[in-house]
Write a structure and sequence with these properties.
The structure is a homodimer of 318-residue chains. With 318 residues, the first copy, chain A, is of the alpha+beta class. Chain A is built from ten helices and twelve strands. Chain A is 35% helix and 26% strand. A seven-stranded mixed beta sheet of chain A has the order 7-9-6-10-8-11-12. In chain A, helix 2 runs parallel beside helix 6.
């Protein structure tokens, strides 16, 4: 799972502090860096998939690995509202891996790239003990219009796309040796690229949900120096998650902190919510209002009208 | 060593063929991809340093690893004549690696970044069994002016910067347990960033020497659909290489096929050679003329007036 540990957050902060701060409007700390252009800004991001950490050959076909390596980067572009343009692919391959698996990864990646009209413009191949794919992806957005994590204001409504917790359910069922339709959410996540672009005229802030809603919402709140209130009963969960999680408590926990959803969390001011929801309905994008941004700088989850403690993942960042 | 095997070249070609060809002027196949802008083109490249493949902790300090990870990317930007702008850093770190080593890598990288006024704009951290650093670097060049591998013409003179073979000498002396001043060329290569930019008004083509002159020259010839003739006696080698290689034959072999020189090979038309050499002298850039581009599409190395067979590395590409 891709959950980031507290040590990694502090490591990233300390690593970045060694460098001179960049001139561009946004450097490290958002889903993408935003590099200013004359009419278009370029959003760039890098993400790696490592065997044994982010995938296993037992549950992923090589096509899936190729798909997911690009998908997680597209999700970062989606969170900025960027239109995907190009990517670079750095492969680290064990000596004994044949050409067949590499070509299968290329096919999985290529199908997704084609869907988003994205060009492979370069890359690198290294030997390594462990199979990994590191992709750098770039997209464009009209100058100054990129959706960052930090634009939210008190009173903004919080929307979540798709359903949450399915990727985590798949991991759990795999461990118990069970087959599941949720597996598709784990091995072939769908980045919400169109939704991100659609959101630009309505939204004030957005983030992609890779580490679980609780953690990613906390990131948005911290960046915006605000808090949030989320109604757990309103979280969008699939019928399969509700049925197979074992308990309502566990379903809620996975929806909040399971990770790898690759959905979007979008903050929309109240007076634009109706128009935003209409635009989503017209484009077949499923979104649900789950909470609100608050002035108090803490995140409160409510269930049946009662505030409950922040679930696993959240207190790492408190 | 970073020598690319024939299997890797064919793998890259086959991998790239799975994707739609990109719209930008240059996609995969050069030192960088060139992405067109209104006044400036952006050159982007990605390169990885993997423990046990590209470095060992025995011979590299963590500062060196950070330096080299960025330097090899700067060398690709140099080969395009690009001015470095920004980079992304993806770290894959074993669990047991402490914060100290990561900070040391950051310091080595940061010192080089500062020298070239380059901003760290983003990155990624993953767990992995093997330490590796994958850097994506970008630079800019005036529109349409990037130096590619494919612009050479018959009669162009070939220039090489610095000295060749020292990085390979260091590997050999390490194996024999000997200390060497050439080690600095292996652990802290100097990318020829200023020389690359200086070359733009004079040169027709350029490539950086990462896989050895023989192999990289063959790449330039293939991209330009031409051949070349190189005088081995004119290759720039250090006094240390001449003294410690064991034989003149081995010194020549390492200069031609040792790899990891991170010098530039530059093709300059005859009527601009004098001005190019004057410009280099003014800027303190050491270059030496070593051969000429020919119409016959093969690479010939001459020694004492006799043509000799292409050394190891070259026939992989024939």
């Amino acid at each position: 799972v891709r959950a980031i540990e507290p040590r990694e957050f502090s490591l990233i902060r300390r690593f970045v502090a060694v460098f001179d701060p960049p001139a561009p409007p946004r450097g490290p700390g958002d889903d993408c860096a935003v590099l200013p252009g004359s009419r278009w800004d370029t959003c760039v991001t890098v993400d790696a998939l490592v065997e044994g950490v982010h995938f296993t050959r037992r549950h992923f076909r090589f096509e899936d690995i190729g798909h997911k390596a690009l998908a997680v980067n597209l999700s970062d572009l989606a969170a900025m509202g960027a239109r995907p343009r190009w990517f670079l692919c750095a492969l680290a391959i064990p000596k004994q891996l044949g050409t067949g698996p590499v070509m299968a990864m290329a096919r999985g990646m290529s199908a997704l790239a084609r869907k988003h009209r994205m060009a492979l413009v370069g890359g690198n191949v290294s030997k390594a003990a462990q199979l990994s794919i590191t992709i750098t992806a770039a997209g464009t957005v009209r100058r100054g219009r990129a959706l960052t994590r930090q634009g939210a204001r008190s009173g903004d409504r919080l929307f979540v796309s798709g359903t949450l917790g399915d990727a985590r359910l798949a991991l759990s069922l795999w461990r118990r040796g069970q087959r599941t339709t949720a597996a598709a959410r784990q091995v072939r996540p769908t980045p919400r690229v169109e939704l991100g672009q659609l959101s630009i005229p309505y939204a004030r802030a957005a983030i992609d949900l890779s580490d679980g809603l609780a953690q990613d919402l906390a990131q948005m709140c911290r960046a915006s120096r605000l808090g949030a209130q989320v109604d757990i009963e309103r979280l969008p969960v699939s019928a399969e998650l509700r049925r197979r999680a074992g308990s309502a408590r566990r379903a809620a926990k996975w929806a909040l902190a399971g990770g790898e959803d690759y959905e979007l969390l979008i903050a929309v001011p109240p007076n634009r919510c109706a128009a935003f929801e209409r635009a989503c309905a017209r484009s077949g994008e499923q979104v649900r209002e789950v909470g609100v941004i608050t002035r108090t700088p803490s995140v409160v989850f409510s269930f049946g009208g009662h505030a409950i403690p922040a679930p696993l993942g959240y207190d790492h960042l408190a």
